Amino acid sequence: MTDDLELDATKRVQARLGFLVHLAMYLIANLGFIVIWSVTGRGYPWFMWPALGWGIGVAAHAIGMLLGPGSDVERKAIDKELRRLRIAPR
Question: Which end of the chain has fewer CB atoms within 10 angstroms, the N or the C?
Answer without folding.
Answer: C
